[in-house]
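The freezer alarm interrupted the setup, so I double-checked each line after restarting. Inputs confirmed:
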Amino acid sequence: MSVQNLYSAIKRLNAELTYSAYLALANVLDATNPEESELPPLRVAVLSNFTVDSILPVIKGEIALAGFFPVIYLGGYDSIMLDVLNPVGSLYAFQPDFVIVSQWLETLSPTLVTRFLSLSPEQAATEVERLLILLDETVAALRNSLKTPILLNNFPLPSYTTLGILDSQIDSGQTQTILNLNQAILHRVHQWRDVYLIDYLSLLARIGSVRGVDERYWHIGKSPIGRHALVPFGQEYGKFFRALRGKTRKCLVLDCDNTLWGGIIGEDGLGGIKLGATYPGSCYQAFQREILNLHDRGVILALCSKNNEVDVLDVFRNHPETVLREEHLAHWQINWDDKITNLNRIAENLNIGLDSLVFVDDSQFECDLVREQLPQIAVIQLTSDPSAFIPQLSGSAYFDSLTFSAEDRQRNQMYRDESQRKQQLHETFDSLETYLSKLEMVVEIGYPDDVTIPRVSQLTQKTNQFNLTTRHYSEGDIRAFLENPDADVFYLRLRDRISDLGLIGVAIVRYSDLVAELDSFLLSCRAIGRGIEEALLAHILNSAKSRGCTRMLGKYLPTKKNGLVADFYQHHGFNCVSETPQGLDWELSLDQDIFPTPSWVNVRIVK
Amino acid sequence: MVMKEDKLKQAIADVFGVDFNTVNDNTSVDTVQEWDSLKHLNLVLALESEFDISLTEEQTVQILSYPLIKAVLEEHDIQFN
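Predicted 3D structure, all chains:
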């Protein structure tokens, strides 16, 4: 099967997202040699106590859509414990990147689901306790051998409870018992490292449990997920693969006419467009509110519209009913050029990759053009019904992330400040150095603590450009480095005259004997081009030297995106010592003087 | 409801991973090597999703060839041109 078939199956799936399209792609994947696909493999172990085979094609498709080649280990039916307790078994030999433990309550505890009334309240509580102990043992056994993320699930409620309407009146009913169990699982997930909860309860509530659970499939093949639920179930896992593998998108690029308001501003004018408290203007207002929620979550907002700039800006500045205002927009391209050119300009101006963009437009023509010319961009083609815009946007989950940091809240402000800096650079300052010194930059370097570890892990997962090795680390990994006496993790925080850019740099160093090796070195893209990486590198070299190290080693592992740092080592005096198929190895002797921190940065070391 | 046969052929091709053009009246459990019990459940799911119907228990075991699949879909008022 040729790689061409693979890419056309992925393209078809992107446009349709139907179960058939997932099946078709899964068949092509099964017939493709992973190495020829040029996609990096993602190895997922699926352990389950019910038949999940019908969801697997969707999981495989989601992994491929995220840019990986799915390699799946499917455990035996209802033999999770056998798999996890055997340290030399095939599960651990498989070396998964992710472990999915998917459990259905009816298999786990038939009594709780089908014969609830046969249990006294005390017996029901004991049964819940038994399930939790089982879960504890499962996770503990997995953690003995694996550090990879584990995806667990909670339990949906039965469509009809044993006690009927009475069940919701009492606190020891079936509903409350299952909700208590779910609550206890959530509590455990918070305590465990790198264990995440797939919320089956909410997922099935969204689909509807009568529609989503198919009793026929359950009786035919212990496969309870109905046909309306197969795609959403698989996609829910896809959201976690994307979030944990740095595939979260960053910027929402919006069309204006018939997207952010009804009508055409250039023709209908400020008073004629539909935007306000009454239908259909209320749909557009609600959509704007949802976009503002994304803005508050740290998604960068940009406009891409074929219009006169002054007409469009008039809406955001002067329309009494607009929710989005000029201050929420990090950048815009409002002109009569084609949208491909404008999307490239937006990515360039914001210093982010095209694959960080999500493009929203109501026009079939524009959407098809972008899908064809810039397939890296995710496209949401709005329906003609504006009340359906919000589910279309939220359902796509392109911006879903598993962390929410102070930096996220401030992101749009930072990107606007950056535009301001860029303008000042052109207008006021004659040389880069003068400009940089006028920024009054203060860099803080230190070791991450409980508060900053999530952000450090997030940066390793999300930073693709200024990143020498592009190694993704979970919070657990970062903690492990910090606890290891032969390793150091440094963070870098930056603020300047205009704003606080927050924690934007990470370096990880490993030591063995007299040799230090740079495991990771990265800077968030909004801090590139200011020379602060020299401050971080100088600090690392000095601390390696004071440990007694004589040499610093470093690797450059090229990806499609980190060409920016190809010269990094050479530029800082390293010698290239060998070339491997993965990249280049560099070395710097620490006997010589370490180069000084650049004059325009004030460095503060936090012990 | 009148359907193009192409839609049915595509669904079958998707399930078994065979070429669309090879699906015809001879397509059956005996001629398609990939047709095992797991793929058969996928076939049920795919037909139900694609045509928005629910097969009866009897029908799920009847659909063992292309002509039989068509016959079952016709019982759900889906006509082919």
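Quick read of the result. Residues 3 and 80 of chain B are 5 Å apart (CA to CA).
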